[in-house]
Design goal:
Strand content: under 5%
Distance between the termini: 22 Å
Number of helices: 6
Largest sheet: none
Length: 199
């Protein structure tokens, strides 16, 4: 175990560490179509975008204000939901890191498994950053929708799909972190048991 792994890490250094431990051709988590979170998010985004497409198409000529108001309400609900999910992520990270004892960490360092633990915890950091970006985008789009400019239907639909994909990916990735918490619990138990046997 090198000393570098025991130093304080920022997002960039943790990202590099996580990337170095992936397979050579493995894609970023947010675009890795082989993972459940990604392909299911694409499916859900396409369904939602189609529904919104029909909603806008039937109201664009006669009720533009209704489209704007509905979109702004959806953005507000998205912001509120994402803020709540950030609280869930922070709580989950606190529980996972708090239940991993110093003895277990010591054993992991001896067995050169500490980097694996860091990459697992980085998942919380990663999805938290995506949530932050989505919140900023949602706030920006909320005010953009209130600007009195010509409505571009194609751009609107593209933004809807991107935002829908981001929100669905965040939701499913967060759910997958529950499995990560379970794995951390199992690792903590196994290494604690090993420490007791050695003692």
């Amino acid at each position: 175990m090198d000393k570098q792994s025991l130093e304080f890490h920022d997002f960039k250094s943790l990202y590099k560490l996580t990337k170095s431990m992936r397979e050579e051709k493995e894609l970023e988590p947010i675009i890795n179509y082989k993972e459940f979170e990604v392909y299911f998010s694409i499916i859900c985004s396409l369904i939602l975008t189609t529904v919104i497409f029909l909603f806008v198409k039937t109201n664009i000529d006669s009720n533009m204000n209704y489209i704007v108001t509905t979109t702004q309400n959806m953005l507000l609900y998205t912001i509120a939901g994402l803020i709540g999910m950030i609280g869930f992520i922070v709580s989950g990270l606190a529980i996972v890191s708090g239940t991993t004892s110093s003895k277990v960490i010591g054993i992991m360092i001896e067995k050169r498994k500490f980097n694996y633990l860091l990459t697992v915890l980085f998942s919380f950091f990663y999805i938290g950053l995506i949530m932050g970006i989505l919140i900023v985008l949602s706030i920006t789009l909320y005010f953009v929708m209130g600007i009195n400019v010509n409505f571009s239907f194609p751009i609107y639909i593209i933004i809807v799909f991107i935002m829908a994909y981001g929100v669905f990916f965040t939701l499913f990735y967060t759910v997958s972190l529950l499995g990560t918490c379970i794995n951390i619990f199992i690792i903590n138990y196994l290494y604690s048991k090993e420490d007791q046997n050695e003692g």
